[in-house]
User: What shape does this take?
Amino acid sequence: MSRIASPTVYVTYQGAPHDRFDRRYYVERHLPLVMQAWRRYGLERVAAFFPALSDADTTRDITLAICECHFRDEAAISAAFGSPEAAEVMADVTAFTDISPTRLRVAPM
Assistant: This one.
């Protein structure tokens, strides 16, 4: 019997290649903060992806970073984003970027 995929939230950062985005801080500080804050609500794992840039990507907004957050179930997503710890997670965004994140919720098929 196969396991049903966990619900996923993608957090993306769209901007120009020269926009401030500190990848090191994001991976070493922000993602551990996210796990520490939301694990108790059902966050199972997170992963960061940084799409490669092409020469054509120098003047237009592109996806600079993607965070993939896997949750135990739909209720866990609501609990995490509605938790008291959510304010600390969101406040930390300015430590690594000036770009506003976009959240996309993906449901398993």
Observations:
- The radius of gyration is 15 Å.
- The beta strands are 8-15, 43-49, 62-71, 102-106.
- The chain has three helices and four strands.
